[in-house]
TrEMBL record:
This is Nuclear factor of activated T-cells. It comes from the Eukaryota. The lineage of its organism: Eukaryota, Metazoa, Chordata, Craniata, Vertebrata. Residues 209-227, 791-807 have a biased composition (Polar residues). Residues 134-177, 209-287, 782-812, 860-890 are annotated as: Disordered. Keywords: Cytoplasm, DNA-binding, Nucleus, Phosphoprotein, Transcription, Transcription regulation. Its main location: cytoplasm.
Amino acid sequence: MTSVYTEKDPDTLGISEELNHGSCQDEELDFSILFEYPLCDDYQTSEQEELDIAHKVLNPSGVPYTHGEVSHYGPKSCNSSTYAEPPDGISGYLGDRYYLDPARQAGPSAVSPRIEITPSHELIHSYGRELNLGHPMNPANTSPRSTLPVPGYESAYREPSCLSPASSNSSTSWHSDTYSPYSPWGSPCVSPNNGQADDLCPRFQHIQTLTSPRTSPGTSPRTSVTEESCLGLNSSSPRPNSRSTSPVGKRTYDEHTNQNTPVAKHRSRSPSPQRFRDDSTPNAFNLHQYPYSSSLADAMNSLNTGSSCSIPSKIVKTNPSYPLYTSVELQQENYLGSGEQDVKRKPGSEQVFLVPPNWTKQLVPGIPFYSIPVASLPSLEWPVPSQVDQYHLQIEVQPKPHHRAHYETEGSRGAVKAPTGGHPVIQLHGYRGKEPLGLHIFIGTADERILKPHAFYQVHRITGKTVTTTSYEKIIGSSKVLEIPLEPKNNMKAIIDCAGILKLRNADIELRKGETDIGRKNTRVRMVFRVHIPQPGGGVVSLQVASTPIECSQRSAHELPMVEKQDVECCSVLGGQQMILTGQNFTSDSKVVFTEKTHDGQQIWESEASVDKDKSQANMLFVEVPPYRDLSMRHAVKVNFYVINGKRKRSQPQHFTFMPLPVPAIKTEPIDEYEPNLMTAKMSRSLGTLPQPYYHPQGMMTSDSCLIASMASCQQLRSGLSPPDSRYQQQTSAVIYPRSKSLSTSPLLYQQGSLMASPVPPMADSQRSVLVHASCPAQSTIIHQQQSTSPNHHPTSIIQFSPTNHQLRGGGLQEHQRIMYCENYQTSPACSPAPSASQAQRISPSHYPTVIQQQPYVQKMPKNRSSPSQLEEQRSSDNPKDRSGALRVTVKEENLDQLYLDDVNEIIRKDLTAVQGRGQT
DNA sequence: GCGGAGTACGTCCAATGTCAG
DNA sequence: TTCTGACATTGGACGTACTCC
């Protein structure tokens, strides 16, 4: 396996950075080439020692991590969810290298549609001069990519298999509608069943008849070799030269119709390969059903062997100034051992590294910048703050609110742009290091729930001359992530001109098992940026910032009104306050309607605001907030409003909070045993700080934690220091990865720094968050732990949260790990009057929609705050057997998204199973 | 429950600009 | 230097599926 980058430089050799796990049908190929990873144990330099150690800590296996999922192929990693035994066909693990056993019976073919370009010896050595495109081992086969059957690695790729290969229109992806869930790229291109056309993915059945594939499908001819270039997938187009096509082999309408003759009247939409999370997806190809197909391989090779399917000269054309390093040279340069680097090996297994010229001075051995191993990265669903200590990740230039995403069947629609015509700009402040870092970009949701990777959109890498930013694709979890360097020489600023957005077909995604989101009208996304900063002490600080929402549909850019900003987010119940809405597509007929809905979705109030049409413009509305329906209400009420231009032309609902009139005296009322949890959590949610359903799978929620959280939220509200768009910022506990030499065996503490997002120092100081690594990141959860130094400090905070709890499902948690929660303390703009903490305690749970509690059946929450020791006692006495019979879920006010219900149920089921299992043993 | 109208989705078409040969 | 072909990008439109009334 080689891990190869695709260098954006159009003159560089095409490099797809993604993992290619075995990719050659040519049995003569030296498979060991493809799966080797060089060691880089001695790459530290004196000035980098600390940071290198940090990386080693995070990568204790010693296998140099690479982009994509390469780390999954290393020795047993700490991440059990991603760890994979060497795939069948990879006969052993030697040191840090897997190698393939050529003698082993090849399994299903084309588990990887990504067939890596392995330049020949001659090619490599003539780099920059003359290029010999012949295959090093089989001169007759000039295809640089072939397909290596590597069965049985599903465990490694179930999760990361889900990205749309198609999304890499530019250079790196393939595409299939029906593809193996075991293939990270979907495997459309090689039939698992003897290569018969009817065994091919419908979208690719045509490829067998093709003889003259295009040379550079859907990609810049200068950037890289794409799979289709050798397999001719794009030749299917009836207009083969008319326009760019997806590298995945676009279906044409005719093709589609023909291949669905029985239902020709309708377009049958085959499933997208993206983001499969479950191999049981009905659309998934089960490669296990199919023997290795030599015939198809032959067919593929026959395609490849055509002159047109040689390595396109464009692709191998290189920049003459591009340096070429042999292994010896790299060793001398201290670059050897780069697991991240584009490692090319000649048949003689001599390593050759292709190092972009602009990296040579910045290159940290093994990686072009500080790129944390995927296995060590926090889940994309985890909330991460934008600011920690002196570090602050900031969007200097926001993306345009509209960007028409492209489908797999389309060509790219370019990179997301800024309103001014440029591109979004991200900057990391406070970084004093000398080494470049990797900035991750992915497409996240833009709804009211917690930020997470969007199910229906993926980031799409843009390449070409116009792109100035080097980018690399990576897979984290099941989402595609672009990684671009943040370089000190650029003041840690990056222009995001390489990120487009790919739309996945709704039907395909909705068919996924476990997918509860619907795609229809779910067209808003956010660009999410993350950076992981290694610390001298061995930890890593992770920062994240999300852009303002981006509407990705076609029509909405011209028709739907869109609110981008509101200068006021709350006022008193009396209303009357002027609110300025900034956005697009406002008309003279635009109206602003405030609504309130019950937790079950019933609208109980609607009031049209007064719009000052004289002042209003196409991008600005001056609105007078109407009074709330109940002037006597005594707690903050969250309502929505939207701008409507006409029938069905309304904006996304925006939030607004009506605050109660000041109350002279606050009476403390008794609360029931668990109400504090409800109360505080709900209060927080009501204040916009806890947008997610609130549940606690481990049954250890305490009133204190919730109270503290709510108080923090209140103080945040009061502070009024948050930016207007703060609700789109994930301001959460910091995550720091401390040094540990035993990541794989012992818990790794992620200790939070100061809660920088919180503008309230005392609370921020007292709020400490600890992310505990059990044995692997996938099993990690985040703890918010109270470490108050105050004499009246609260006991250990135990609030648990997980958007989908994937991280919590990794098995039974240890007792000391059970108490985990990390909520994104979303800041809110200034509001007045804000409820005090005492007011907050009076908030009635009945006003807030969703709370799920899982708690010990017999162990009720104490009325009085427990000391940490008491809590510990409770925990220690809470033996598994007891818990097995005690686990209970209380669903309050059912308004849960089914996703969360499913998650909770799943957690409980697994918990019970685990507990029962322990009980039996 | 049914049907028509409107809307959303997914795909295709065409124009334009850039770049390499 | 100019021409040509290939491709990326972009806006628009069409056919079908879906939703709403």
